[in-house]
Amino acid sequence: MAGGSLLALIDDIASILDDVAAMSKVAAKKTASVLGDDLALNAQQVSGVKADRELPIVWAVAKGSMINKAILVPLALLISAFIPWAITPLLMIGGAYLCYEGFEKVAHKLMPGDHHEEKPDAPQVKDEADAKKLEKEKVKGAVRTDFILSAEIIVISLGIVSSAPFLNQVTVMVLIAVAMTVGVYGLVGAIVKIDDAGLYLSKLSGESGVMNAVRAFGRGIVNAAPLLMKTLSVVGTIAMFLVGGSIISHGLPFMHSLIEPLTHGHESWVNTLITGATDLAVGLIVGAAVLALVMLGKKVFGKK
Questions:
Q1: Which of 87, 79, 107 is nearest to 241 (CA)?
Q2: Distance set, CA 156 to CA 121, 151, 236, 242 (Å)
Q3: Is the CB of residue 222 less than 8 Å from the CB of residue 199?
Q4: Which of 58, 88, 157, 260 is the most exposed place for a label (fewest CB within 10 A)?
Q5: Structural contact between residues 203 and 218, judged by C-beta atoms closer than 8 angstroms
Q6: Chain-centre distance of CA 7, in angstroms?
Q7: In angstroms, what CA-CA distances link 135 with 61, 79, 81, 128, 281?
Q8: Are 238 and 280 a contacting pair, CB within 8 Å?
């Protein structure tokens, strides 16, 4: 009798693990696009800091990301259980914030005057105190941005497992949260240290043709690293509009009726381009509107 009960328990556990594995695979595929945006947004956060502080900053943001997900997973489960209607409005607020941050970056490049001087693109670091302040600002900004992207990852995962038993929901969402954090910040760490790897390769000794090619490859990496970081900065800003615009578009029912005729009858890649262009346009419009409201609020109520 005891042996039969034990075998039944093992069978139940195996069945749960099989279900969790299947749902985790689906959730990972669904959240892969957010992973790319998260990577592009966070890889730019270490620009302007000393080389020996790059990995500590990435680690600090990664810890902040785990704290974000530790808050978001139980919060998402509670909201889903008691006030599921609140998920979409909350996500749309987060999406509007992403659009605002993205448009603010664009405004710093394009708009002269006080607004540009208030938050310069490349802060001047005069001493150790300024360097630490810059680090804290970068970490805080990255963690805030990560919170929105993490929320999207958690909600996507929740939508996939919403009909599963509660234990399976928790297990899948925790697995996705951990895997996404490790994946994003592991890659970010590798990207920000790629120039160091190139410098190491460029200084290897040896006179063979292979070693000459390795050193040339290392020099190529060193030369390409600044361009890579600038590219990631641009891609990261575009990703803010795409992700924020996508969240807002999905939350507005009339957007579906506007986009559907545009995508009807086309190949999948054309539909992807059309949807992306629409999300980008929505992100730019919302970002400009929120920034205008913020600037108006500062004039009316003061900068504080």
A1: 107
A2: 33, 9, 21, 16
A3: yes
A4: 260
A5: yes
A6: 43
A7: 11, 34, 38, 11, 32
A8: yes
Tell me how far the alpha carbon of residue 151 is from its chain's centroid: 10
For residue 229, what are its two tokens?
């970081």
* Rounded Cα gap, residues 182 and 53, in angstroms: 19
**pLDDT tens figures, 119-175:** 444 455 555 676 677 778 878 888 887 887 788 778 777 777 777 777 877 888 888
Integer Rg of the chain from CA:
23
How far apart CA 131 and CA 137 sit, in angstroms, is 10
Burial group, residue 45, by CB count within 10 angstroms (0-12, 13-18, 19+): buried
Nearest CA among 115, 91, 65 for reference residue 296: 115
Which of 169, 174, 177, 189 is CA-nearest to residue 149?
177
C-alpha to C-alpha distance for 283 and 98, rounded to whole angstroms:
8
Residues 71-101 as b/e (b if ≥16 CB within 10 A, e otherwise) read ebbeebbebbeeeeeebeebbbebbbbbbbb
For tokens 């669904």, what's the residue?
Answer: 30
Contact status, residue 141 vs residue 233, Cβ threshold 8 Å: no
Q: What are residue 208's phi and psi, to 5 degrees?
A: -75, 165
> pTM score > 0.90 for this model?
no
